[in-house]
Structure formats: C-alpha cells, structure tokens
Design goal:
Elements lengths: L2 E3 L2 E3 L1 H16 L4 H12 L3 H13 L6
Antiparallel strand pairs: 1-2
Helix pairs in contact: 1-2, 1-3, 2-3
Length: about 60
C-alpha cells in the first residue's frame, strides 16, 4: 500500500515507523485523537494518512502487535 506525502511516497519502512509511534503514544496513556495529531505533526503527514497507516498496520499485524 502506497501513501502519498505531497509528491513523495512513504516507504513501507516509514509507514511502519509511523505506526509504531502511534501505538507507542497510545501505550503511554495518550488517547487515540491526541496520538494521531502528535504523530502527524512529528512525521509531517496528515491525520488522514496516520489513520490509513494505522489501519494498514492492524490489517497486516505490524509490530508491536
């Protein structure tokens, strides 16, 4: 699954890094909405992209799941 970031494509490794950051934020008592906002800002992507990456990570059982 390819994700766009402007004219760039996010690699699978980058998407996995974003997914890990979301899971980690939620594991540290941050709610879902806050974690998406934080990670989107940190990685320079949209919250919509973060949600799509989250879904991809869940479907494909990416670590740390």
């Amino acid at each position: 699954m390819t994700r766009e970031r402007g004219n760039e494509q996010l690699s699978e490794d980058r998407r996995k890094e974003i997914f890990l950051a979301v899971v980690d934020a939620q594991d540290h008592e941050m709610d879902v909405a806050q974690s998406r906002t934080l990670v989107a800002q940190r990685f320079g992507v949209t919250e919509s992209q973060v949600r799509q990456i989250e879904q991809e990570g869940i479907e494909l059982q990416w670590p740390p799941l």
